[in-house]
Amino acid sequence: MQNLFEEIKVPQEELENMVNEKLDMIRKDSRKMKRTKFFCGFTAAAACITALAVFSVSNPVLAAQLPLIGHLFSQVEDKQPYYRDIDEKTVQTMPETEETANAVDGLKISLSEIYCNTEALYLSVIIESEDAFPDYLLDNQLMHDMDFFLLDAVENFDFVNQPLVFPLQVNGEYIDDHTFVGSTRVDFTFGYGGLDENGEETDFVFPGTIPESFRWNMDVKKIYTYYGNSSDSQETFTKNGPWSFDADVTAKQTERIVREVNDYAPNGLGITTAEKREFEILLNYGYDESYAEYEADSIQSVILDADGKYMLDKAGMLPIGDFNVSKIDVYYFPIASEEDWMAIQEKLTVGEPADFIKEIAVHHTEIVF
Predict the structure, then answer these.
(1) For the chain, what is the HEC assignment?
(2) Residues 6+ apart with CB under 8 A from 303
(3) Which span out of 140-154, 222-236, 285-299 was modeled with the highest average pLDDT?
(4) What dihedral do alpha carbons 40, 44, 46, 51 form, nearest 10°?
(5) Within 13 Å of residue 203, how many CA atoms lie on the same side as its CB?
(6) How many CA atoms lie within 13 A of 38 on its CB side?
(7) Residue 76: C-alpha distances to residues 13, 32, 45, 83 (Å)
(8) Would you tell me how many other CB atoms lie within 10 Å of the CB of residue 250?
(9) 193, 204 in Cβ contact below 8 A?
(10) Residue 209: its pLDDT value, please?
């Protein structure tokens, strides 16, 4: 941020009121609201879940003050693909640093907040550019459904004897011409590529038990994004670091409930396991040809919570939010065309979808947590 902003004194109460007013305005901004999907073409399928969403503030003074407020997660929870209702008492606000800290060649990266449980480490990220970001980024001309950056990061956890070398995908939004805000997470239940003590490539797996507290540090070697969303994607806006971070992290001890399902619809598609976590349910899908009486694409499925409310399935991930997930019901039904499928989706958002779906379903799977 420009030096003149450092001399501006903004009362904290007035500042937070201004932030809330800006957020209300942003939620009404159709240009911002159109980005509802997340991009996951670069990383492996498991890494798709690192997708997330963000919020906007159009005043650079407010953007500079965001790390002081420390409520980024709660401000944007309604746009996240996974987390909801993070307890602010357990969110760690990163300590303030000098204005020049983690600024490399005019690009500054800051971590505003950390939240950690036994499933994942969540990070809110602020990226500030001394020069305005190029128009092709600000106007989202990259053929993506959502703005994002990739951070080539090397992370160290003191309870693991090797570094985690893996790109973090930070999905988010430009809140002004100089500032990008987003969030990402490191999932403790995934396997990653890593490096051993000799620098050789190896598999990286977190232990089954995550300690209540640990020391964490991260060096970001490079930041970039991509043009395109296919195998022909080209790296663009590449900046070399390093940017370094470290923190003592407290991990909330949360419970994961795993259910063996192994139930299949008449097209051979089904669910093998279901895992209920703090913020989402993960479904592992499978295929068993012995059950296939129909073509795979001739049958679709929808998921309802215990109260019969429609839950959006994001590639096997169901954000819990305000849903009643003491159980979920998966209904499979035949469709003859894409138009049929679109018509059914419209009906799911009005009235009592459970009554409608039960009438047309050819198979039902109940999963109790």
Answers:
(1) CCHHHHHCCCCHHHHHHHHHHHHHHHHCCHHHHCCCCCCCCCCCHHHHHHCCCCCCCCCHHHHHHHHHHCCHHHHHHHHCCCCCCCCHHHCEECCCCCCCCCEECCEEEEEEEEEEECCEEEEEEEEEECCCCCHHHHCCCCCCCCEEEEEEEEEEECCCCCCEEEEEEEEEEEEECCEEEEEEEEECCCEEEEECCCCCEEEEECCCCCCCEEEEEEEEEEEEEEECCCCCCEEEEEEEEEEEEEEEEECECCCCEEEEEEEECCCCEEEEEEEECCCEEEEEEEECHHHCCCCHHHEEEEEEECCCCEECCECCEEECCCCCCCEEEEEEEECCCHHHHHHHHHHCCCCCHHHHHHHHCCEEEEEEC
(2) 310, 311, 313, 318, 328, 329, 330, 331
(3) 285-299
(4) -20
(5) 5
(6) 26
(7) 20, 13, 24, 10
(8) 16
(9) yes
(10) 93
Q: What are the beta bridge partners of residue 283?
A: 274
CA 311, CA 305: separation in Å to the nearest integer? 7
What is the model's pTM?
0.71
Q: Dump pLDDT digits (tens) for 142-168.
A: 777 778 899 999 999 999 988 999 899
Identify the pLDDT of residue 251.
94
pLDDT (tens digit, 9 = 90+) per residue, 172-213? 888 899 999 888 889 998 888 766 656 677 788 999 899 999
Spatial distance between the Cα atoms of 200 and 218, rounded to a whole number of angstroms: 19
β-sheet bridge partners, residue 127: 109, 180
